[in-house]
Amino acid sequence: MTLRRIVEILRTGQPDDAVTIRGWVRTKRELKDFTFVDVNDGSSLTGLQVVLNKDLPSYADIIAQINTGAAVEVSGQLVASLGKGQRIEMQGQTITVHGGADPETYPLQKKRHSFEFLRTIGHLRSRTNTLGAVFRVRNACANAIHQFFQERGFMWVHTPLITASDCEGAGELFAVTNLDLQNVPKTKSGDVDYGQDFFGRPAYLTVSGQLEAEIMAMAFSNVYTFGPTFRAENSNTSRHLAEFWMVEPEMAFCNLDGNMDLAEQFLKYLFQRVLDQCLEDMEFFNQRISDTVLSNADAIINSQFERITYTEAIALLEKSDRTFEYPVSWGLDLQSEHERYLAEELFKRPVIVTDYPVEIKAFYMRLSDDGKTVRAMDVLAPGIGEIIGGSQREERLDILEQRIQAQGMPLEDLWWYRDLRRYGTVEHAGFGLGFERLVQFMTGMANIRDVIPFPRSPLNAEF
Ligand code: ATP
Ligand code: MN
C-alpha cells in the first residue's frame, strides 16, 4: 500500500492501485450493506469516496467511530466508481480511527454555516470547503508571486517588521515596547522616557517595507519584499486588516511606465497561475461565492488595463450621472465608491490611475514638472477598488527635502533615506500590493477576514 495524497488519486489513480490515505471524515452515509465515507486531506476540494462493506471485521464498531471530523487512515483498492460525480473510489480494507469527533458537539456538521459563525471557530473553519479552497488559492498565489519575481531576476529582500521610522503618517502605527505599562518611566518634563525602552527610542510595527526596499534596490537593481505589515486601522471594513501581507517590488533605473507595465504583467501572471493550479477551487468560487470570478480572471488575463490620469478620472466622475456620497472635485482623494465606479461600471476592467495631486500623496513620490501632481499610480479592480498603490520615487535630493519639510517631518530622521539621493541616485519606482485584497479579488470572497487564516482586526485576535 502506498500512501498517497487524495488530489493525486483523483487525478491519476487507476483501478486496482493499492493505496493508503489519511485525512478527516467529511460525511458518512450508511446503507444496508455498506457505508460511504467522504475523506478529505486538504489537498483538494473533492474528497475520496471510501466504501466500507459490512463484512469488514468490527464493522459496526468502526462505523460508530467514523463521524464527521474524525481523523482516519484507510488502506484499500481503488475501483472505478459507479456513482456519478467521481471517476474513482476506494474499497476500504483496513481502517484506523486516530481520533474521533463527537457528533453531539463537533460544530461542523453537514449544513452550511455563515462566514460570521465560522470566524468564531477559527481553529476548525479551515476544514470547510470554502475556507479550504481559499487557503489553497492563497498558497498557489504566494508561490506564484515568488516565481514571477525569481524568473525575472528580482531578489527577495527581508525588510524589518520592527522599525523606528514613522513615515507613512502617524495614527495607524502599533507601538512596540517592553516598558512596564503599569509603571511607565517619565522624563523631567513628564513625557515617556523612551531612553529606557528596549531600543532607546520609540519603535513600531512596520506599515510598509518600501523605504528599506529602496535601500536594497540601490544595490541589487530589482528587489521585492513579501511579508506581513501592520496597521492600527480603526476602520471596521471588509477590506482592512490590522495585520496583512504586502508584496512590494522596487526597481532601480525604472520610471512610472515601467512600474505600470510590471504591475499589469504581474497580475496577469498570478491569475493565470492560480487558474492553472486551482481550477477546481476557482470553479467552486464562481458557482458558490460570486458568479463573476471566472469572467474577472479572464478579463485580467486577456484585456489590457485602462490607463488614465487622476485629472481624467475626476472629469469622468464629474460627467457621470451617478450621485456619490463623497462629491468629487480636483484635489480630493478618490474614495472607494469612485474607484469602484471607474473599474466596475465605466471601464469594466482594471484601471490604472496616475498623476495624483501632490497634496494627497506621500512625500517620496516624484514631483512632476507641473508642480501640482506626483507620479503616483493606483490599480483599481472591479469589485474591490484599490488593489495596488505605487509610484516613481523622488530621486532628486533638493526636491525630496522640500517635500519632507512641507509635510512637517524632521529631515534628520530620514538621514539615511536622503543619503540614497546623495550617493548614486537614479530614477526608481515600485508598488505595494495587498496580498489579501488580491486573494479576495481572485476568489470573490466578500470579507477580507475570510481570506487569511488568522485575521487581526479591532477587538479580534482570538486565534
Ligand atoms: P486604502 O485606501 O484602501 O486604505 P491605502 O492607501 O492605505 O489603502 P497603501 O498604503 O497604498 O494603501 O498600501 C498598499 C496596498 O496595501 C493597498 O493597495 C492595499 O491593497 C493594501 N492595504 C492597505 N491597507 C490595508 C489593510 N488595512 N488591510 C489589508 N490590505 C491593505
Ligand atoms: Mn489605508
Would you identify the regions where 5 or more consecutive residues have pLDDT less than 50? none
Q: What level of helicity do the residues show?
A: 25-40%
**Strand count, sense and closure of the main sheet?**
8 strands, mixed
Radius of gyration: 27 Å
Care to give the gist of this entry?
Helix content is 31%, strand content 24%. By secondary structure, the protein is of the alpha+beta class. The chain binds adenosine-5'-triphosphate and manganese (II) ion.
Keywords:
463 residues, alpha+beta, eight-stranded mixed β-sheet, five-stranded mixed barrel, 13 helices, binds adenosine-5'-triphosphate, binds manganese (II) ion
Description:
This protein is of the alpha+beta class and 463 residues long. The chain is built from 13 helices and 17 strands. Helix 4 crosses helix 7, helix 4 packs across helix 13 and helix 6 crosses helix 8. The relative contact order is 0.11. The mean pLDDT is 95. The site of adenosine-5'-triphosphate has 15 residues, from strand 12, strand 16, strand 17 and helix 13.
Give the helices and strands, then pairings:
Elements: E1 2-3, H1 6-12, E2 18-30, E3 34-40, E4 48-53, H2 59-65, E5 71-80, E6 88-99, H3 115-119, H4 129-151, E7 155-156, E8 162-163, E9 175-176, E10 203-205, H5 210-220, E11 222-230, E12 243-252, H6 256-277, H7 279-288, H8 293-302, E13 306-309, H9 310-319, H10 336-346, E14 351-357, E15 373-381, E16 385-392, H11 397-406, H12 415-422, E17 428-434, H13 435-443
Parallel strand pairs: 1-2, 4-6, 7-11, 13-14
Antiparallel strand pairs: 2-3, 2-5, 3-4, 5-6, 8-10, 9-10, 11-12, 12-17, 14-15, 15-16, 16-17
The structure holds adenosine-5'-triphosphate and manganese (II) ion (MN).
